[in-house]
Amino acid sequence: MASFESSPMPEPSCRSVAIIGLGLLGGSVALSIRRRWPSVGLTACARSPETRALALDRAIVDEVFDRPDAAAKGCDLAVIATPVNRIAALAQELAKQFSELTLTDVGSTKGGLVRELAGTTAAKQFVPAHPIAGSEKSGAEHARADLFDDKPIVITPSGEELPQHITAATEFWRATGGRIVTMPAEQHDATLALTSHLPHLLSSLAARQITREMLALVGTGWLDTTRVAAGDADLWTAIVSENRDAILSAIEQSRSDLDTLQTIVDQGDDTALRTWLDTAKQIRQSAQT
Amino acid sequence: MASFESSPMPEPSCRSVAIIGLGLLGGSVALSIRRRWPSVGLTACARSPETRALALDRAIVDEVFDRPDAAAKGCDLAVIATPVNRIAALAQELAKQFSELTLTDVGSTKGGLVRELAGTTAAKQFVPAHPIAGSEKSGAEHARADLFDDKPIVITPSGEELPQHITAATEFWRATGGRIVTMPAEQHDATLALTSHLPHLLSSLAARQITREMLALVGTGWLDTTRVAAGDADLWTAIVSENRDAILSAIEQSRSDLDTLQTIVDQGDDTALRTWLDTAKQIRQSAQT
């Protein structure tokens, strides 16, 4: 993107970075840092030999390992890019061995992680982060250097982090091309329940209402509205499980609004219906700027 | 589309066609018929002088008028492509003057229309139709010859039509490039409530759950799911008003499924949640073929 080429390149705030877990997100973090900070050394830990071979073939990183501590050894910063239920244990393991290492992650829910690490040594080094970027494709083979460009990267400090780790992690994430947004973990989870998790569930709900016979009559409206419902059911089950309380609140809020809609339609109140629809239209159009 | 060029061109089943109302749909009907049946004469009625000038400038039709009966005079078939609340009156007016004229329409709800015309002279000549095609753009200036290609065109006979009008209207709609689907008006309305109207309302519902402050954190899932919520609030108020009973049933059905989801999430039943999500995924993926 032109804005990158013309903006001054800040000096790298670290000499070497380890990526723990080389999927779509981990691979894209490596490629985006390579683009912006070409002098920074990159190592990775990947469990599968195929992924390790791919990472070297495509020069996504300089060195690959099959163990997290081997990848992190000698590094200034490590990004844990594994499924969210493995992040806390990995953070504790790495903090125990490398007391100077800045730790961060890509997990899509944050409250549980922050609670799990509270009071541990790892909490001083670990800066929780969630880059809001992705794709329906998974795996390092789909990694892209521009995946995070202008995408929100939410940092949710627990308050226990040492200041130098906050600074290092923030500069690192800025170097991926993302926009840094800082908020408490609980606010992040409540917001994502409404901006991401509930829309996914409503999309699935819309898909579930029709029979296969009706598919012959669907138009572009149904196809757009239900597009994300084709996503991986295991992944979304895990997300709902990690963020259950906030998602239950979001479901309750939407159920109450559905009751409002039902009353409006039942009463044939066209003025109220137009206002109900127009509020949605205004919000949706505000996102298109 | 290649399949059109290579398939044999059937002989036109009419010599001249009138389009009553030249918006996106009326204009696209004219252009698609021109492509397939170039020898057929095309007239149109449009209320606005600008639209009439545009229709002649772009040769969408051969002649334009400001009155429906002037456009339909001498024609074999007339397509009423006005807003749905004006179709019944126009059908009766044209049937009264032109007893041989085949009448059809593009209205997106059918039950009310069929009930309104029941027992009238017009019901013998009027073949209710709904081409499921559109665009977020409106007006004849966005008309396209390929708008109906391979799109469902639902014909909902009342049972009162004379056979020659059913045949003429069916051949006409096939010549636009669409796929003919025949079903009773009530089944059409109940199906569209689930395949089109409810998804639109759920898309609006998803948009309404977030505040403007949260817009900074939306990703592609929210953007896809809420895309149609940016549609015209007046148009959608009219659709809901026309198809109220079927939409109320669709809302009730989805509310019951939302209750099921809420119970599953509340109980932390990951197996049931995965099945719930997977059903949606299977249905959505079936539509991608």
From TrEMBL, chains A, B:
> In the UniProt record, does the keyword Nucleus occur?
no
Metal-binding among keywords: no
Q: What is its EC number?
A: 1.3.1.12
MF terms (GO), sorted A to Z: NAD+ binding; prephenate dehydrogenase (NAD+) activity; prephenate dehydrogenase (NADP+) activity
Q: EC class of this enzyme?
A: oxidoreductase
Q: What range(s) does the Prephenate/arogenate dehydrogenase domain occupy?
A: 15-289
Quote the InterPro entries the UniProt record gives: 6-PGluconate_DH-like_C_sf, NAD(P)-bd_dom_sf, PDH_C, PDH_N, Preph/Arog_dehydrog, Prephen_DH
Record's keyword terms, sorted: Oxidoreductase
Q: Which SUPFAM superfamilies match?
A: 6-phosphogluconate dehydrogenase C-terminal domain-like, NAD(P)-binding Rossmann-fold domains
Name of the protein this chain belongs to: Prephenate dehydrogenase
